[in-house]
Amino acid sequence: MEIVICKTKEEASRKAADLVAALLKKKPDAVLGLATGSTPVEMYKALIADVAAGKVSFKSVKSWNLDEYYGLEPTHEQSYRHFMDANLFDHVDVDKANTHVLDGLAADWRKEVADYEAAIAAAGGIDLQVLGIGSDGHIAFNEPGSSLASRTRLVSLTPQTIADNARFFEKSEDVPRQALSMGVGSIMEARRVVLLAFGAGKAAAVKGAIEGGVSQFCTASALQMHPDCWFFCDEAAASRLELKDYYAWRAGEALGAEIGD
Ligand code: GLP
């Protein structure tokens, strides 16, 4: 696990984008796993700027998103399909037919999740998975109590996650109670994982994920078992880490080797 700690979220997002861009240069037809939420927005902006500057292209990229609210149509303003179009896909040269988000309206959700996993496998698996982290340490919608071996499935959101996400909806009753979500086991199959965490509200989750025990109570802690996992944090999110100076120094060297800094 490498933990990159930057002064600001903009700086951390730029560095995370550099890692994604390095992959796209090496493998233009990379398979990306993408995340929603407020956290990755800055990183997507940095990638949009890279595409505009002709530094990278999404022309041959294929992507699969982590999750989708169950019961929301793709055109709903708070659907994750809408989020991805608005924050990334509409601004880069990706072929939208190659971008995949779980269908929140799927009548047969079991078939939907099985087809989704099969399509990822047929594409050769995910090269790089982008993640945010919930304030309770969840990744995708793998809430506390999710098996660390879980696969893509229908899940129920905790009251805390519903409250956290209520800011995006008119009222908290509008937040869907369920979602389709990749499982922890599915996420762990990505060849590289890039998790972003910003702000003091994520400090406890980051502490649990990195320095806590591996536990289904904090599903991000499963990433301790991943052979190529990168955390990009601002100082506030990293503030509770005991060994933060050591991590930052070590990650600086590792990142330099990856992005040629
Ligand atoms: C939701 C998403 C997660 C995301 C989390 C944090 O629960 N399913 O993928 O990481 O929200 O969101 P934010 O980045 O807005 O704090």
Structure description:
Helix content is 36%, strand content 16%. The longest helix is centred in the N-terminal third of the chain and has 18 residues. The radius of gyration is 17 Å and the shape is globular. It starts with a strand and ends with a helix. It binds 2-amino-2-deoxy-6-O-phosphono-alpha-D-glucopyranose. 2-amino-2-deoxy-6-O-phosphono-alpha-D-glucopyranose binds next to loops.
Provide a concise account of the structure shown.
By secondary structure, this protein is an alpha/beta fold. The protein is 36% helix and 16% strand.
What is the typical, i.e. mean, pLDDT? 96
Helical fraction equals 25-40%
Give the CA-CA distance, first to last residue: 19 Å
Shape: globular
Strand count: 10
**Order of strands in the sheet with most strands:** 1-10-9-6-2-3-5
**Given the structure, what is the number of helices?**
9
Strand content: 15-25%
Computed CA radius of gyration, to the nearest angstrom? 17 Å
